[in-house]
Amino acid sequence: MDKRSFVLRNRKLIIVLTLLLAAVATVPLFSLKINPDLESYLPDNIESRINNNKVGEMFGTKEPIVVILSTEDVLAPQTLERIDNLTSSFLDMGILSPVQSLSTAKNIRSEDGMMLVDPVIESYPQDDDEIEELRESIRQNDLAYKLLVSEDFKNTMILLNSDLSVKDAELMNMIDSVINLYPGSEEVLINGQPYLRGEANEKISKDIMILLPLGLLLMLIFFWISFREFKGVILPFGVVLISIAISMSLIPLLGWELSIIGVLIPIMMIAIANNYGVHFIARYQELNATDPNTTMEEIVEEALSYLKRPVVICGLTTIVGILGLTVHILLPASQMGVVSAIGIAIALLLSLTFIPALLSFLKKGALHFHPDGESRSLIAKMLNSIGKLLARHPKRVLAGFAILFLATASGIAAMGVASDFNNILPAKHPFNKSIDIANSEFGGSKLMTAVFEGDIKDPGLLKRMEHYESELVKVNGIGSATSIAKIIRKMSTALNDPNEEGYNKIPDDRDAVAQYVELYSMNGDPADFEQFVDFDYTKAAMTIQFNAEGMRDLERVIASVDNIIGDDPALSFTGGYSLVEKEMSESIVRGQYYSLLFAFVAIFILLAIIFKSISAGLLGSLPLLFAVVCTFGFMGWSGIKLDIVTALLSSVSIGLGVDFTIHMFWRMKSEIASGREYRDAAVTALKTAGRGITINALSVMLGFSILFFSSFPIIKSFALLIILSLLFCLVSSLLLVPAICVTFKPGFLKNGKRYEKSV
Amino acid sequence: MENDMKRVFKYFNTLTIILVTSSFAASQNPREISKKSADAIALGSMEMTTTLKIFDAKGNARSRTLNMASRKFGDVTKMMMKFTDPADVKGTSILIYDYEERADEMWIYMPALKKTRRVVSNERGKNFMGSEFTNADMSKPNIEDFDYKIISSENINGRACHVIEATPVSQESLQSNGFSKKVSYIDKENYLCYKIEYYDLKGKILKTQTIGDYRPVEGGSYFYYEMEMKNEQNGRKSVLKTEKFKPQSQMTEAQFSPSNLDK
After folding, report:
1. Does the beta-carbon distance from B88 to A515 stay under 8 Å?
2. What pLDDT, in 10s, does the model give residues B168-187?
3. Do B200 and A94 touch (CB under 8 A)?
4. Cα separation values, A696 from A33, A600, A663, Å
C-alpha cells in the first residue's frame, strides 16, 4: 500500500482538477455585470423604498438631474442665450420633461386690474439698466428667485427630469453632447443620481482594470523578494489567480452584479489568499536548506504535515470573520462575505493540495533560506526590545494599553455615519462641486416629499400646508418647501390687485380654489401640476429641499419636519430619495453591528474549541475588541464616516487579526509545555512566532495598500482604516496578549500536550 | 416674390405627385385635397355645447362641460366659453378676441371672485384647457404653413382615403406648430378627415387624433361631434364630445363683451 499522503497519492488528479477548475472559472467572468445603483441593492420591502415608489406612482416616476451654470452674472445676454439654447435642446430630447430653467419660468402678476403672464426673460437685456431691471423682477418672483437663480445671480439651474427610458451612460452622453453643442464661458456642473451612477459605473471598471494588475505586480515583486525562486513566485501566485477568478465568477453565477464594494474583492484575495501558499513555500525553502539531501517528495510530506493544522485553523478563523458580512442587510456586503469566504476557502484548499502536488513534481531549487537575513533584522530587533519591555514591565504595558484604549475610544463619541453616497466620488469631482453649490447657493441638494391626502381644493388644508411651508423654511438647513398651496397663493396675486382682500392669500372659498386651478391649468402645460398634485386632486405633494451633513444632521432635519407636519390629519406619509439614503445608512450601521456580533461570537466559539477553554475565547477576543474600538475611535477623531465601504472593515480585520493571536497562543502553549515559565514563553513566542506574524501582517497591509490607488475616496479610506486596524491587531497580539498572559497566567496555556511548533 | 415662390412650390409638388401617382394628375393635388378637407368643416361662426374629458395615463378621467360660441366681426373672431359642469367651476367664463394681425385679447370671469379679469399673456398655453388638444386643433389649419405629399391610399372605416403627409414649410412654422410632420387620412369622396398622426421634432410619433361622428350641417358642410387626441408618448388622452351644434351664431357683438361674461 502506498504510504504517501492523500495529496501525493492523487497529485496528478489534483493538478488536473485544479487546472480544469481554473479554466471553467474564467467562463462566467465574461458575463460579469456592473451595477453601481446602490439603491437597487436594498430589499424592496423597506419602508422608505416603498414610500419613494409610491411618490413616484402618484406624481410621476422621474429622476431629477440638475445642470448648474456658474459665472460672474447669469443675466449677461450671452449666458441667457446659452440657457435658452440648452433648455430648448433638452426639451427636444423628449425624455427629460418637464425642463425648468430661466427660459421656461413664467412671471405671473397683477397690474392695473389685469393678470399678466410673461416669460421671465422676454428679451435679452441690452445694457446695464435693463440687466438691473430684469434682476429686480426676478427678485420679486418667488417661483424663480433662489430656486432657479442663486441669491447672488452667479449660479442658475436647469432642472431636468429623466423618464428613466434611457440608460445612465447613454443619457449622460446625450446631455454632454447638448452642452458641448452650445459652448460658453460659464462653468457647467451636473448632479443627480443618473450622473452619480454613470460616473461610479465607469470608475468601478476603471478601478478593477488598474488595481488588479497593480496588485498582482506588487505581489509578484513581494514573492520574488521573499523567495528569489521561480517556484516560490509562481505557485502562490497561481493560487491567488485561481481564487480571484473563482470568487469573481461566483458573482454572475449566483445571479449577482458587481457593486462598488466588489472592487474590494480581488484586492482582498491578493492580500489574503497568498498567506497559506507563502507558508508552504517558506517551509519548503527552510527544509531544503536544513537538509539538502532530502527529496522533494519528503520535503512536501514534511511541510504538509507540519502546516496542515495551523494553516487550516487560521484559514477557518478568517473565513468565519468574513462570513460575518453575510448577516448584513445590504446585499453587496453579504455578497462580498459569501464570495470572498469561498475564495479564501479555495485558496486554503489549493495551498494544501495543488501547491504540494505540483511542487512534488518540480526539482529542488538552490538554497534560499536566510533565517537572519538583513531584511528581517529590523523586525528581529523590534521584537527583541518588545520582549525586554514585556519581561520587565508587563503591568506597565497593560497600563499603556489601557491609556491608549481610552484615548482612542473616546473618539467613538464623535464618530459619524454618512447620510448619503456623495462621498463615493472625490470632493473636487464636478458632481460634488455641484452638490456644494446646490447646498450653499440654492435650497439644498436633498429632497423629501410629504404627501397629503384629502380634498386638495379644501381651503382649510391648503392654508395649513401654506403655514407648514413658512414654518419649514425657518428650520436650519431647509431651503425651500413648495406645494400647490404656494402656487395658489401666487395665483391670487395675479387675480387680485394688491389693495384687494384676496391678494396674496389662499381663498376662503373652495370654488374659488377650483377656479384658480382651472385658470392655471388652462394656461400651462398639463404636466406643470403633475409634480404637485395628482390627477383628481385627492393627493398633494410638498417638496422639501434641504441640506444635511451626516446622519445626525439629517435626523435633526427629519425630526423638525415631523414636528411641524407630523400631526396633520391629512398627512399620508413622507418619502423621497433622502429618506432611502437615510435608511440605507441606518442599515449599514445595523449591518455593522450584526456582523461584528457574529464575528465575535463565532471567533470566541472557535477559540474556545481550539484551546478547549472559555478564557482562551475571551482572551483571544480581547485584541480584536481593542483593534475594533481603536479603529472606530480613530474614525471619530479623523472625521472618516461610517459608510457603505468602511462598514465592512471590522469583519475583515477581525477575520485576519485573530490569526495573530492564535499563533501567539500556540507558541506560548508549546513553550510552556516544554517547561518554560510564562514570562520566558512569552518572550520566546515573540521572537519566533512574532516574526512570522509581523511579516504576515505587513504583507496583508501591503496588499490592501493597493486600494490607495482607487478612484473612489471611500475605498481609499477603507485602505487606510484596514491597514490601521490590522496594525492595532498586530500590536495588541504582540504586546497585549503576552502582557496579559504574563500577568494573569491563564490556565489554558498550561494544560494539554506539547503542540508542534508553528510558523 | 413670395407668390413666385409659392408657385414654384406648387409646381414642384405637382411634379412630385405626377411622378408618384401619375395616373391621377391635377385633381389629386394634395394641397387642394387638404384645403377641401379643411373647408368641409363648419368652423368659424357657431354655437355649441361640448364635453371635454381628459384622461391621464392610468385612465382616470376629468370632465368639463362648456357652452361655446364664436362669430367673426370684421377682422376679429370672438369666442366665448362658459363652464356648466362641474359645480365648483360652473359659471367660469372665458372670452377671447382672436385678431388676424395682432395678439389675442382674453378675459376671464370667475364667479367665486365675482369679477372679470383681463388676462394678458405672451405665453398662451399651447394646450386647450389643459387637455391634449392644442388651441390650433380648435381652429382651421393654415393651409399655407405646410408642404403636402400624397404617400398612399388606405381604407378607414370602410372609406377609401388619401394618406397625405404635411410638413411645415419653414422653421418658424415648425416651431409654432411643434411637430415635424402630420399624416392625415382624408376621404377620397367627401374630403372628411378621419385620422391625423402627429410626429415630434425627432420624427417619433407624438399624438394620434381620431375624428368621427360627422354630421352634415346647414350650408352643405359637416361638423364632427366626436374628436379624440391620444398622446402616444405619455399615454394621456382627451376626448371632445359635442352634444349640441349650431352653425352661424346669432349672438350680437355686445354679447361678446367682457361686461357680459357674468351673465
Report:
1. yes
2. 998 877 877 778 899 999 99
3. yes
4. 34, 22, 11
> B interface mutation test: which of A91, A95, A115 has the most B CBs within 10 A?
A115
pLDDT for the residue A108:
78
Pick from A92, A113, A511: which is nearest to B88 by CB? A511
What chain A residue is nearest to B110 in terms of C-alpha separation?
A515
pLDDT of residue B17: 45
Contacts of residue A414, defined as CB under 8 A and 6 or more positions apart, other chains included, come to A636, A637, A639
Strands (E), chain B: 46-55, 61-73, 76-85, 93-99, 105-110, 115-121, 146-156, 159-168, 181-187, 193-199, 205-216, 222-231, 237-247
Strands B115-121 and A114-119: parallel
CB neighbours of A400 closer than 8 A, spacing ≥ 6? Answer: none
Is a pLDDT exceeding 70 seen at residue A538?
Answer: yes
Dist CA A324 CA A645 (whole Å): 15
Give residues 144 to 183 of B whose Cβ lies within 8 Å of A. Answer: none
Residues ≥6 apart with Cβ < 8 Å to A381: none
**b/e code B242-261 from CB counts within 10 Å (16+ = b):** beebbbebeeeeeebebebb
**A504 against A94, higher pLDDT:** A504
Whether A464 has a pLDDT exceeding 80, the answer reads yes
Q: Please give the residue of chain A at the shortest CA–CA distance from B88.
A: A511
Q: Are B85 and B64 in contact (CB under 8 A)?
A: yes
Across the range A267-279, mean pLDDT stands at: 88
Interchain contact, A526 vs B111, CB within 8 Å: no
Residues of B in contact with A58 (CB under 8 A): none
Average the pLDDT over each of B11-20, B65-74, B221-230 and give the range with the smallest value. B11-20
Region B119-124 average pLDDT: 66
User: What amino acid is encoded at B221 in this protein?
Assistant: S
Cβ(B150)–Cβ(B37) under 8 Å?
no
Give the whole-angstrom CA distance, residue B199 versus residue A98. 19
Q: For the beta carbon of residue A725, count every other beta carbon within 10 angstroms.
A: 26
Lowest-pLDDT choice from A235-249, A280-294, A666-680, B117-131:
B117-131
**Residues in A touching B96 (Cβ below 8 Å):** none
Amino acid at A549: E
Contact B112 A495 (CB under 8 A): no
Q: Rounded to a whole number, what is the distance in Å from the CA of B177 to chain A's nearest CA?
A: 14
Q: Cα separation of B153 and B151, whole Å? A: 7
**Cβ neighbourhood burial of B22 (10 Å; 0-12, 13-18, 19+):** exposed
Q: For residue A527, which residues of chain B lie inside 8 Å, CB to CB? A: 234
